[in-house]
Amino acid sequence: MNTLVVYASKKGSTEKAAKMLFEKLEGEKSIVNIKENSSPTLENYETVILGGSIYAGSIQKEIKNFVNDNLNLLLTKKIGLFLCCGMEENYKKQLKQSFPEELLDHSITDQYFGFEYNKEKMNLIEKTLIKLVTKSQTNLSNILKDNIDKLAMDIQGDIKVGQ
């Protein structure tokens, strides 16, 4: 199975989660940061996994643009979706706001991958907002490895997921 993982990351947590997912996938695979390669070739892939993070209520515009520009071709592929965001209870709402309804209906799996707050990568306003929301002054990491494993297993069906 040829699989392409396409992601966008603002502060690094989505990149970290996407790379963890990539390591779990078997077979021929590629991974693309859409901010570095805005038009990866989709024709050679049977499966495409798309993900990003929610920042100020929206997924990265690069992911939205990529999906909108390639929607018809994506609808011919096996699709998995994931998001990294701070509040799991908002995950399904954020998913619906991030991806077109046709793609959501077509995807075989979607997962919430958690979040990570690295204050060294934040500006003063971001640090202040995170401190108010989380009541924490330290870095927080809640990348959900079990959810990453689940998406990999869902995508690969009966194929054993790498350790």
Q: In summary, what is this structure?
A:
This protein is an alpha/beta fold and 163 residues long. The chain has helices at residues 13-24, 61-74, 91-98, 101-106, 124-134, 145-156, and strands spanning 3-7, 29-33, 47-53, 78-84, 109-112, 114-117, 140-143.
Question: How much is the average pLDDT?
Answer: 86
Q: How large is the count of helical segments?
A: 6
Rounded to the nearest angstrom, the distance between the terminal CA atoms is 18 Å
Globular, elongated, flat, extended or rod-shaped: what is the shape?
globular
**CATH T-level fold name:** Rossmann fold
List the main descriptive attributes of the protein structure presented here:
163 residues; 6 helices; alpha/beta; two-stranded antiparallel sheet; disordered C terminus; 5-stranded parallel sheet; single chain; Rossmann fold
